[in-house]
Amino acid sequence: MAQLSDDCFAFGGPMMTVDEAVALIASRLTPVADTETVALSEADGRVLAEDLIAPLPLPPFTNSAVDGYAVHGTDLPAEGEKVFPIAARVQAGMSPGALIEPGHAVRIFTGAPMPEGADTVFMQEDVRLDEAGDVILPAGLKHGANVRPVGEDIAAGSVVLRAGQILRPQDVALVAALGLTEVSVRRRVRVAVFSTGNEIVSPGATRGPAQLFDSNRFMLRAMLARLGCAVTDLGILRDEGEAIARVLAEAATGHDLILTSGGVSTGEADHVKASVESVGSLVFWRVAVKPGRPVAMGVIRGAAFIGLPGNPVASFVTFAHIARPAIRALAGATPETLLAMPLRAAFSYRKKPGRREYVRASLRKGADGTYEAEKFPREGAGLLSSLVDTDGLVELGEEVTDIKPGDVVRFLPYSSLL
Ligand code: AMP
Ligand code: MG
């Protein structure tokens, strides 16, 4: 006799692993093609549209790395000390002056151009001045010390940033150092987002006794904003298939992605899947991930559709592991490999094989001073406190069935998922 089960994984139909779902998404989505030019001050977080080639070397001229005295390398004292008259003085921003004669030193400061002929700088802390004002240099300094040669950082003509790079503050610094005032980036991914559920009301509205304030939409909007998306908030839709289908069809024009939460399960009030199928097609609707369970992906008149589950923790996890790679693919960003930290588990856990599970966990210092992952004590997928009071997710792969304290697990800090 067939077993009855409330586990949606027990229902028939296609079921894929997270990796299969992400690979399928990457193969189905094409990046937005339009590009725009943005000023440096607006470049952080944008996706670089073309490889960036250095128009000049960095540093652009050979200069001193310290405050001190520049000399010819061939003049370095072999042993003992040697006295050098000071021929000139060069400060940052000055021209390097005349060629330095052998046997002479030049007083020089950090960032000042090296005088022609000089190739080694003594730090001022390592020298003495005699009564005549000449400088006494000790033996032992390496030829070429304390000099930053032209192009040692970046060679002119080299590719310094690749197309697909999501620009970070240090990337913006590099673009600025190269003297550029703007960069070519992909246009922002346009995302329409709405919540579903007769029981969901917006914060600020009057809440009936059996109603909840919408938290998902604000979480998803914040996550989308961090990914650089231009978001249209379509509010909350009631559990009515036709209304949902109408909004999906309308939103497909003018958006690259429609992102929803709730209504993708198999309950009577779950209309989102059928609505997608009435105006477009579903690519998958179940992924072997917990929390997460039903998470749908589809295509509606050229726009991508992703339907996340309504439970806030399931919404969070599936956004991070399904929607985020999809949005990066749409944005034209290089696919990312999440770098999990190997940490000792401070908990026991059993799970079914064949699905991936994400366990909410906090970092704590173990007895030997190294960090370990402590599991949040409760597991409900609706517990927002479980996301707020933890530091990240422990990823338990499809093959894992049993975790014991002390086992090494993969920890993903929230900072790597947001
Ligand atoms: P569903 O996926 O529609 O079956 O919803 C699963 C659970 O998540 C239900 O308890 C819903 O009340 C809750 N839920 C759905 N949408 C939201 C939302 N936008 N904010 C907070 N909770 C939600
Ligand atoms: Mg619902």
Short summary:
By secondary structure, the chain is α/β, with parallel strands linked by helices.
Q: What attributes does this structure have?
A:
single chain; 418 residues; alpha/beta; Molybdopterin biosynthesis moea protein, domain 2; Molybdopterin biosynthesis moeA protein, domain 3; 4 domains; 29 strands; disordered N terminus; binds adenosine monophosphate; binds magnesium ion
Topology:
Elements: H1 18-28, E1 35-39, E2 52-53, E3 63-64, E4 68-71, E5 81-84, E6 86-90, E7 105-108, E8 120-123, E9 128-129, E10 135-138, E11 147-148, E12 159-161, H2 169-177, E13 182-186, E14 190-196, E15 200-201, E16 212-213, H3 216-226, E17 230-237, H4 241-252, E18 257-261, H5 272-279, E19 281-286, E20 289-290, E21 294-300, E22 303-308, H6 312-331, E23 341-345, E24 349-350, E25 356-365, E26 371-375, H7 384-388, E27 392-396, E28 402-403, E29 408-413, H8 414-417
Parallel strand pairs: 6-7, 14-17, 14-18, 15-16, 18-22, 20-25, 23-26
Antiparallel strand pairs: 1-13, 2-12, 3-11, 4-7, 4-8, 5-10, 9-10, 19-21, 21-22, 23-29, 24-28, 25-26, 25-27, 27-29
Helix pairs in contact: 1-6, 3-6, 4-5
Describe the structure.
- This protein has 418 residues and is of the alpha/beta class.
- The protein folds into four domains: 18-34 and 188-331, Molybdenum Cofactor Biosythetic Enzyme, Chain A, CATH 3.40.980; 40-45 and 48-58 and 153-185, Alpha-Beta Complex (Molybdopterin biosynthesis moea protein, domain 2); 63-148, Beta Complex (Molybdopterin biosynthesis moeA protein, domain 3), CATH 2.170.190; 341-416, Beta-clip, CATH 2.40.340.10.
- Helix content is 19%, strand content 30%.
- It has eight helices and 29 strands.
- It has helices at residues 18-28, 169-177, 216-226, 241-252, 272-279, 312-331, 384-388, 414-417, and strands at residues 35-39, 52-53, 63-64, 68-71, 81-84, 86-90, 105-108, 120-123, 128-129, 135-138, 147-148, 159-161, 182-186, 190-196, 200-201, 212-213, 230-237, 257-261, 281-286, 289-290, 294-300, 303-308, 341-345, 349-350, 356-365, 371-375, 392-396, 402-403, 408-413.
- Strands 17-14-18-22-21-19 form a six-stranded mixed β-sheet, sandwiched between helices.
- A hairpin with a 2-residue loop joins strand 21 (294-300) and strand 22.
- The two termini are 46 Å apart.
- Mean pLDDT is 94; it is low at 1-12.
- Bound molecules: adenosine monophosphate and magnesium ion.
- Magnesium ion is lined by residues 196-197, 262-263, 269, 310.
- Residues 196-197, 262-263, 269, 310 line the site of magnesium ion.
